[in-house]
Amino acid sequence: MTTKYNNVYIEDTYTICGNYENDGPLSKYFDKKYEKDLYFNEKSWEKAEAHLLKETNKNILNKNKLKDSDIDLLISGDLQNQIAASDYMARDFDIPFIGVFEACSTIGEGLIIGSTFVESKIAKKVIVSTSSHNMVAEKQFRNPTEYGTPKPKTSTFTATGAVSILLTNKKTKIKIESSTVGKVKDFGITDANHMGAVMAPAAGDVIYNHLKETKRNLDYYDLILTGDLGIYGKNILKDYMMTSYNIELKDNYNDCGTMLYDLDNQPVLAGGSGPVCSALVIFGYIYKEMLKGKLKKILIVPTGAIFSPTFTFQKESIPSIANAISLEVVE
Amino acid sequence: MTTKYNNVYIEDTYTICGNYENDGPLSKYFDKKYEKDLYFNEKSWEKAEAHLLKETNKNILNKNKLKDSDIDLLISGDLQNQIAASDYMARDFDIPFIGVFEACSTIGEGLIIGSTFVESKIAKKVIVSTSSHNMVAEKQFRNPTEYGTPKPKTSTFTATGAVSILLTNKKTKIKIESSTVGKVKDFGITDANHMGAVMAPAAGDVIYNHLKETKRNLDYYDLILTGDLGIYGKNILKDYMMTSYNIELKDNYNDCGTMLYDLDNQPVLAGGSGPVCSALVIFGYIYKEMLKGKLKKILIVPTGAIFSPTFTFQKESIPSIANAISLEVVE
Question: Which member of A20, A323, B219, B238 lies 3.0 to 4.6 Å from A108 by CB, making a disulfide possible if both were Cys?
Answer without folding.
Answer: A323
